[in-house]
Design a protein that fits this description.
This protein has 418 residues and is an alpha+beta fold. 50% of the residues lie in helices and 8% in strands. The chain has one domain: Cytochrome p450 (Orthogonal Bundle), CATH 1.10.630. The structure holds protoporphyrin IX containing FE.
């Protein structure tokens, strides 16, 4: 879940549609960011991949993206990305080095396995009513105001409070915890300047310390909760070091925050721009799960998976060279005519979603938090549409920006008549 990454190292021209000697079109970040769907739509029929000005290749077609997400000839990037961004040590580096997300093979399996025993569907079912209550409380907090930024006051707080609840954090700790999480998230998304690094390292230190203290508290005095079960299971298996255990929980926290914040805001924005579909959702809550999965397809909060081929891989007569940074564009794949009928239409009644939607990736790293994300997005939409069906956008709709990794969203002002 990186952001705008990659490095096939310089050298390649980034002129519009420029085709260097290898015949591969290279596009600049500005061109891609200006209209990513338009670029992908234009090149998908012509070529299996295009080059990115950073040097990465962007794989465009649904079949290739699905296949490569599971292909053992491609690997996660381990610590290459932080190194490229000037992070070579400290906890921010460790967050990549010790995390399941960036690791491969047996190391990855070892780091992920305690979750398969404890982060189960039953837990998500138990959390659903609590998440709904959280969402309702959030709406109640600002309902008497006239105009709010839904991103700050709603979308950002649903994942933060859900994760705080999941970890059983005391209520008073939540604001500080949320601020640390969003600071460290900037690093994973590579949204920082080099001069910010000391401050972000400090935030990472405080977040890791907080998670360590919480885990130790559960070791001393277990509760009937996820974290107690997780730490007991991980300790009993004895396959992870104490620091690895902390890092997997920090990965879970970071992986489940910005991704869900952007999606929670964007699904409301899409529906409010298509009033008939918003009204349908308000009248018929059974349509909410379909609306959630369609919003994730149409304007995803995570646009791609980053991978590196271990060997040369041929695709339709072209070669993805070993060692090349790849952006597997799930964003492009989810608008591919080969996968969806009328892919550029936002339709909450769509019935052609695959059983495992690509927005959550594929293969061994497929999103661990998919079920939780869906519950948060569904209950977030349900609380809002049932309490304020007359909700409207106040001002321009937000634009989700970015063409790879976790995407960005600005403010989203909404208003309503009481
Ligand atoms: C709309 C919300 C979300 C989206 C679109 C999303 C998307 C993804 C994707 C695409 C991956 C795979 C990355 C890769 O293969 O390189 C991933 C992995 C992961 N996600 Fe999510 N995610 C979301 C929410 C969550 C939530 C709520 C949590 C947990 C609370 C979570 C935890 C994780 C973790 C721990 C991984 C790493 C799994 C591994 O490496 O084995 N995600 N997510």
């Amino acid at each position: 879940m990186d952001r705008d990454l990659g490095t096939r190292d310089a050298g390649l021209s980034a002129e519009s549609g420029d085709a260097p000697d290898d015949g591969i079109v290279t596009l600049s970040i500005a061109e891609l960011d200006a209209d990513p769907h338009g670029v992908f739509r234009r090149y998908r029929p012509l070529t299996p991949f295009i080059a990115h000005e950073s040097g990465s290749y962007i794989v465009l077609r649904s079949g290739d993206v699905e296949r490569f997400a599971r292909d053992p000839r491609l690997r996660q990037s381990e610590t290459e990305y932080p190194e490229i961004h000037g992070i070579t040590g400290g906890l921010l580096f460790d967050l990549f080095d010790y995390s399941m997300l960036m690791s491969n093979g047996a190391v990855h399996r070892r780091r992920r396995s305690p979750f398969s025993r404890t982060f189960a569907a039953r837990l998500m079912m138990e959390m659903r009513p609590r998440i709904r209550r959280t969402a309702e409380e959030l709406v109640a907090e600002w309902y008497e105001e006239e105009d709010v930024d839904l991103v700050q006051r709603y979308a950002a707080l649903i994942p933060a409070r859900t994760i705080s609840d999941l970890l059983g954090l005391p209520k008073d700790d939540i604001p500080e915890f949320t601020s640390l999480v969003y600071q460290v998230t900037r690093v994973v998304s590579f949204l920082f300047q080099p001069e910010d690094l000391p401050e972000l390292e400090d935030a990472a230190r405080r977040l890791f310390d907080y998670v360590e203290d919480t885990l130790n508290a559960r070791r001393r005095k277990p509760k009937e909760d996820f974290l107690s079960a997780f730490v007991a299971s991980a300790d009993a298996a004895g396959e992870l070091s104490p620091f690895e255990i902390i890092t997997q929980i920090v990965t879970l926290i970071i992986g489940g925050t910005d991704t869900t914040r952007v999606a929670a805001a964007e699904q409301v924005a899409l529906l409010l721009q298509d009033r008939a579909q918003w009204d349908e959702v308000c009248r018929e809550p059974a349509l909410i799960p379909g609306a959630v999965v369609e919003a994730l397809r149409y304007e995803p909060s995570v646009a791609s998976l980053a991978r590196i081929p271990l060997e040369d891989i041929e695709v339709d007569g072209r070669v993805l060279p070993a060692g090349q940074f790849l952006i597997l564009s799930t964003m492009s794949a989810m608008r591919d005519e080969q996968l969806y009928a009328r892919p550029d239409v936002f339709d909450i009644h769509r019935t052609d979603h695959p059983r495992l939607p690509l927005v959550f990736g594929g293969g061994p790293h497929r999103c661990l938090g998919e079920a939780l994300a869906r519950v948060e997005l569904e209950e977030g939409l349900a609380a809002l549409s049932s309490r304020i069906p007359q909700l409207e956008l106040a001002g321009d709709p937000p634009r989700v920006q970015g063409h790879s990794g976790i995407r960005r969203i600005g403010e989203m002002h909404v208003a309503w008549r009481r």
